[in-house]
Amino acid sequence: MLDNVSIQQIKLIRHEYDKLKTQKQKDAYIDDLTDQVYERRHELYELWALQKEEKAPVVKMPSHTSPTKSAKIIGVKNYEHSNKHKF
Length: 87
What we know:
mainly alpha
C-alpha cells in the first residue's frame, strides 16, 4: 500500500506524529491516517471496477441466429420454458 508514498511524505507523517503529546492524540492521528488509506483504497477499487466494466466484452449475436440458439450461446437456461407464456 506504500507504493505511492514518498520518503518525504513518510518523514512528514512521522514528524507530525512525534509532535503529538498524549497517546490519545497519537492514536487518533493513526486512526485518521488509517481512515484516509481505506477511503483511498475504496476510491481505487471503484475506479478499477469502472475500468473493468468499460473493458468488458460485448457479446453480439449474428442476425441469422435463432433466439433459442442465442439464449443457449449466452447461457440462458430454460429459454423455451421461460418464454412459453408470453405469446
